[in-house]
Amino acid sequence: MTKNGFSAAGLVLLCAGLPLSARAEAPPPAFGVCSACHSTEAGKTSFGPNLRGVGGRKAASLPGYAYSSALKASGLTWTREELDSWLTSPQRKVPGTKMPFAGYADAEKRRQVIDYLLSLK
Ligand code: HEC
Questions:
Q1: What is the distance in A from the centroid of ligand 1 to the CA of 87?
Q2: Domain limits, the chain
Q3: pTM, rounded to two decimals
């Protein structure tokens, strides 16, 4: 292999090894279950509230979405830390929430989902 061919192959390998957060908005497999209820396409609402731009947003603050009174009263702001405990167990984090998801016990899955959410502006 030529010297150039070698470095091009190296570059391809490097890109394949980039963390998910560094790739442009590709949802990780762990987001699949979320997307059954949540859209990340601007302006689209499904069963759950739209998640585009959720990072830094006040909980239950999207106009026009019928949130539970529990989430409205939570006073949360969706930082990485709050999203992490929410996705560990929504019902424990906000008793009375209407999000019917048991939670991800796997911290790596939560991290991938949160990296993805925080990459959506
Ligand atoms: C079966 C449907 C369902 C699934 C699966 C689901 N959610 Fe939800 N989600 C909801 C509903 C409904 C709400 C509104 C909760 C409320 O008002 O109490 C919600 C609320 C949220 C909120 C708060 C949004 C806001 O505007 O305050 C976040 C963040 C969230 N979900 C993230 C996720 C993520 C990430 C996953 C996947 C790991 C997921 N959800 C899986 C239905 C779902």
A1: 9
A2: 25-119
A3: 0.85
Give the residue carrying structure tokens 């949802």. 27
* Residues 3-33 as b or e (16 or more Cβ within 10 Å = b): eeeeeeeeeeeeeeeeebeeeeeebbebbee
The answer to whether the CB of 100 falls within 8 A of the CB of 33 is no
Residues of the chain under the 50 pLDDT cut = 1-2, 9-11, 13-15, 20-23
Q: Residue 27 Cα, ligand 1 centroid: separation in angstroms?
A: 16
* CA 82–ligand 1 middle distance (angstroms): 13
Q: Does 68 contact ligand 1 (Cβ within 6 A)?
A: yes
Class of domain 25-119: mainly alpha
